Amino acid sequence: MKTAWELPKEEKGNRAMLYAFILLSVGMAAVAQLTLKHGMNQVVDRAGAFEPTDLGSLRAVATTPAVYLGLLLFAMSAVLWLVVLSRATLSFAYPFAALTYVLILLFDRFALHQELPLLRIAGVVFIITGIVLVSRTPST
């Protein structure tokens, strides 16, 4: 098995493009989650705790633009993910989806200034380690 540095130039370009699609899809999914959370915070502020059987709650969700934006970002992320799945095995690509945990944790810490328990940080270190190991394997 050759590493990414030993691959022919064409394969390196294809692999770089695959990583770009993966990272863009995962990044968009993380932003989608953050946008949906923001939208649902707005819903709760307007209508109280969300109850899917309550017409007022459903109306508040349906009239919150951030919810629509989050869903749109998820759809765009899914289209990119389809590109990824057309170019790599699922067992190679899927572990990269765990990067959303890392991105959300970084956002919580540095944008929202939330304290992070050491155990949560350790878990994310394990996630990153796993992704690095998976990235070193063939993608097809």
Question: Which descriptors would you attach to this protein?
Answer:
74% helix, 0% strand, mainly alpha, globular, 140 residues
Rg (CA only): 19 Å
Q: Helical content, roughly?
A: over 70%
Question: What is the succession of H and E elements?
Answer: HHHHHH
Average pLDDT over all residues: 89
Largest sheet: none
Structural class: mainly alpha
Q: How far apart lie the N and C ends?
A: 12 Å
**pLDDT < 50 runs, ≥5 residues:** none
By DSSP (H or I, 4+ residues per run), the number of helices equals 6
Overall body shape: globular
- Strand element count: 0
What share of residues are in beta strands?
A: under 5%
Short description:
The protein is mostly helical and 140 residues long.
Structure explained in plain terms:
With 140 residues, this protein is mostly helical. It has one domain. It has helices at residues 9-47, 55-62, 65-87, 90-93, 99-110, 118-135. The longest helix has 39 residues, at 9-47. The chain is globular and about 55 Å long. The two termini are 12 Å apart.
Set out the fold topology.
Blueprint lengths: L8 H39 L7 H8 L2 H23 L2 H4 L5 H12 L7 H18 L5
Helix pairs in contact: 1-2, 1-3, 1-5, 5-6
